[in-house]
Structure formats: C-alpha cells, structure tokens
Amino acid sequence: MARQRDYYDILGVPREASAEDIRKAYLKLAHKFHPDKTGGDKAAEDKLKEINQAYDVLKNKDKRAKYDQFGHMGEQMGGAEGFGGFGGFGGAGAQGFEAPFDEFFDVLFGRSSGGGRGRRTAARAGADLEYRLGISLREAASGTKKKVKFQRREVCSDCSGTGAQAGTQPQACADCQGTGQVRRAQGFFSITQTCGRCRGTGRIITKPCTRCSGTGRYRAERELSVDLPGGVDTGSRLRLAGEGEPGEHGGPRGDLYIYVEVEPDDIFMRDGNDVVCEIPVSFVQAIIGDKIKVPTLTGDAELKVPPGTQPGTLFRLRGMGIKDLRGYHKGDQIVRVQVEIPTRISREQRELVERFAQLSNEKTYPLYQRFVEKLKKSLGG
Of 234, 262, 290, which residue sits at a domain end? Predict the structure, then answer.
C-alpha cells in the first residue's frame, strides 16, 4: 500500500500556515487542476482528489488538530465524528468532495465564501441615490442651507418588510428548503445556483401584504435639510450616509449623494475662486477718469477708473472672490472695463467732438501713433 503524502505538502503550505493561507493555497490548486483546465486528464483527476482530501482535513479546526497530533491515523479515530472518510465519490466521501468544491465555485463565480449547505442569502446594502441640486453663484460663494425632496423606498410598516399579510409569515421555499440555492449535478461536480422559484430569497409569500403588494417596500417622498459650505462648485458632491434605498436581508441602507450644479449668473462669471464681471463706462469717464460703484458678491464696492483707461482694461479687487472649501484662501474679483461709445449724439455734442478732434495731436493717441510707425517699418517706408 502506497504511503500517504503529508497534507501540508500536498497544499504546499507550512504546518504553521493560517486558515486563510490554507484556503488560498487550496483555491489556487483546485483552479489549476480543474477538469475544465486539464481536459479530463486522469492524473489531474487523481491530483484533484488528493488536494480536496487534504483541504477537507486542514480547513476543519478539530480535524486539523487530530491530524497534527496523530497524522493519517487520526482519520480512523472518532468513528463518524472523525474525518468522515473520503473513500471515493459515493456516500460520505461524496459529501466531503462537494464541500470544498462548493467553496471553490463560490470564489470562482463571485459568491461569498464560508459555508456550504444551508447557506442563506447574504445581507446586502441598499442602492445609493443621486440628487441634482441647483444653487445660485452667490449661494455657492457664501454657503447655504437647502431643503431637498426626493423619492425613495421605505420598509413597509404594515408587514415590517416581510411582504406577508399581517398575522402571516412567509413560508420556506420547498425547492431549496429555505436556503435560496439549489444544487445541480454536472458529472463529478455539483454546482450551487440561485433558486428559480423563490429567486434566492428562500421564502414564498402565500398571502401578500396589501399595502406593498408583497414586496416589503413602498415608495415615499422624503425631505431633508442640506448644509452646503461656501466654495462649492458645479460637480461638488455631498454624501448623506444611510439616506439611500433600504438594504436586503438585514443589510444597511445605501447613501444619498447630492451633486451641486451652480446656475449661471447675470453679472458674474466664476473662474476658479475668482469672479469676473464687465462694467460699462462712458468714453468721457474713460478719458477724464472717475470713481464708479461696482457690484460684488457681498454688496457694492468703489473702483477708481484712472484717466485714459482703455477698453478691456482689467482691475482686481483683492479678496472679493470666493473662498475655497477649506477656507484657507479667498479669490479676487476681476473687473473688465467696457468703454461705451454713444450711437446717437446731438448737433451740439457733434460740434464739441469735432472741436476735440481739431485740438488733438499725436500725443493724444499714442497707441495709434505706435501702430502707424510699425506699419511704416513693415512696408519699408
């Protein structure tokens, strides 16, 4: 009779390996020697049986302790309460083969690990919700408190979320025995699938709740007060934990995400933490200078327009912009001057302008003179 190999050697782990290390080693080997990978090779099949036998012992705390103390002789100790015997694919041996592979398929297809028979649907968090909240630029700059109304599902109070009529209880699904999962045999293997009759819930509702129609949920409007700090901008997101959809099977509620959308302003345009505005001044003010009132996000401010101000000249009002979300820095307000030329003038005004033109010389329009000089040079004049 051939000498049995050490179970730790089979899985390629040291004797002091943790349960998680043993599990990872098993999954890696089971995947490597799976029939879909080896094409039904007999040697690979024998190797897979050996791997499963080793894992069936080492994953169990009591079995592993006996194996560490007595080696393979421990398999004969304790009768039915010992290792349970692997012995081929029938009887107790078949069950020993199924349990490790059930865990393998769980990991392979994304189901939760840690349990074979009798497993119920795991708790699942509720879905997150999104809400688009429009605010003005002034509200974005200073911060604001807003009320938001939205629709979400609530746990039905009539049936406490069970979906069953008051005074009744959901019945265990007969197809899956209340586990929410059924096994389908495929050759040597059995695959766990979601039960089609109860859709994985493990329950059948014979008398549905009249308020929620057996769903255990109903839609309702909810109103919340939301505090937005100064400095938010379009795309800023605020998370309200636990204000989303209810969870399933005892899972927590999802979250509500508030997405900020700053509406366009008639006067100001935002540029990062700065705000930009255009102010019209008359050509007389531009020529002789003036003090004008300029609107800001917090009220009017005085701006000195010096004599000879040109169209498009930019002036900066320090600290009159928007503070960042951390409150460490505040932007500026940029004022762009637009010199307005009258489209209609009286006869007297026209005569004054013509007189002004007669009194003008090269020094009156230095920009124009520099342009003329550059033009002459470019033409070789």
Answer: 262
Q: What is the pLDDT of residues 277-298, one digit of tens each?
A: 999 999 999 999 999 999 999 9
Q: What is the dihedral of CA 166, 168, 173, 174, to 10 degrees?
A: -160
> What would the two tokens of residue 243 be?
């204000």
The DSSP code for 83 is T
Q: The tokens of 60 are what?
A: 């169990």
Domain that holds residue 133: 129-170+205-262
Angle (CA) 37-38-40 rounded to 5° is: 120
Say how far apart CA 379 and CA 6 lie, in whole Å: 97
Beta bridge partners of 291: 304
CA distance 191 to 111: 12
Residue 54 phi, psi dihedral angles, 5° rounding = -65, -45
Is residue 380 domain-shared with residue 329, that is, in the same domain?
Answer: no
Reading the block at residue 89, the tokens are 């694919």
Phi and psi dihedrals of 364, rounded to 5? -70, -35
Pick the closest to residue 262 from 290, 234, 288, 220 (CA basis).
234
Asked whether residue 155 falls in the same domain as residue 40, the answer is: no
Q: Tens of pLDDT along 92-113?
A: 333 333 334 444 444 444 444 4
What pTM was computed for the model? Answer: 0.57
CATH number of 12's domain: 1.10.287.110
Query: What count of other Cβ atoms lies within 10 Å of the Cβ of residue 162?
Result: 19
Closest CA to 257 of 224, 284, 291: 224
Q: For residues 184 and 111, what is the distance between their CA atoms, to the nearest angstrom?
A: 16
Structure tokens at 69: 């103390």
Asked if residue 221 is part of any domain, the answer here is yes
Q: What is the CA radius of gyration of the chain?
A: 40
Pairing label, strands 217-228, 256-262:
unpaired
CA-closest candidate to residue 104, choices 181, 25, 199: 25
**Does 250 fall in a domain?**
yes
Kindly report the backbone phi and psi dihedral angles of residue 359, in degrees, each rounded to the nearest multiple of 5, phi listed first: -85, -10
